[in-house]
Design a protein that fits this description.
Shape: globular
Strand content: 15-25%
Largest sheet: 7 strands, mixed
Number of helices: 10
Structural class: alpha+beta
Order of helices and strands: HEEEHEHEEEHHHEHEHHEHEEE
CATH superfamily of the largest domain: PurM-like C-terminal domain
Radius of gyration: 20 Å
Number of domains: 2
Helix content: 25-40%
Strand order of the largest sheet: 8-10-7-11-9-12-13
CATH class of the largest domain: Alpha Beta
Length: 319
Amino acid sequence: MSQEEFQLIKRYFVSDTEGDDVLLGIGDDAAVVNSSGPLAVATDTLVSGIHFPVHMPPDAIGYRSLAVNLSDLGAMGAEPRWCTLALAIPDPQESWLEAFSAGLFELAKLHGVSLVGGDLTRGPLTVTVHLLGPINPDRMLTRSGGKVGDDLYVTGSLGDSAAGLEFFSKNTHEIGPHHAALIARFLKPTPRVEEGRVLSSLASAAIDISDGLLADLGHICEASDCGAVVDVGRIPLSPDLAALFPKEAAQAHALGGGDDYELCFTAAPAQAEAVECAMNKVGTAVQSIGRLVAGEGVTCHRDGETFSPPNRGYVHFSS
């Protein structure tokens, strides 16, 4: 590690978020943390121009880089505790690093996550966060627990982030409050960590919605060896999205837009009242949008008719 790299890390990435479970944090060749049981581990890499626009504000990049990992652990019912950061940056401008780290630590402090190590190097802008946290193996949410007949739910509202990216990418100054709200949902998504923990004793399967509802629900169907039927008219849309798009366009964003980081989960019909009560306690909206069925794949119904959405979600490594 060069002296310049060490000074930048010390100035912008050493934080007081470290708890008593961090035995050795940033400053040595490796961090040491104290864990007495199973850990959930998630890693996401965000590449400029692929996973976020090149002109995205650095504080939002820092925030999002942790949010996507928090969302993964939330979907498992885990408790996020420690993270590492590998950051490649073309030019280590201190103003950029200050804003980036502020966004990262804003969310880290909100969820009690300690940044315990990582790497800083010169290169194309790429951010990799590695997140760990305890998980109860007896209440662990996976994609494979769904059963035919289970109800299908989503938290919050869908489609806002995809619409927000659309407006953000236009880089227009003529935006109103609805546009601003959708852009904010894209720049700083809300990972459903607490929701995942309370659902861990109620849900049968879960996944976070990163690639789009249909794409991610398809992963539950494949892992659970079943199909799903979605009533598109029941998918929750925010007032901001509904105000700016015709209904069918808003639904298209919700079905395939991605980057919502809401939870999609299944639960036995007998758990319906408990699911609603649990979500009310944490202050998060939840909506039943369909069910798991025998067969495979995801089928959409709208106004009583089967239809094929124009976009079924983000495809990794597509040509």
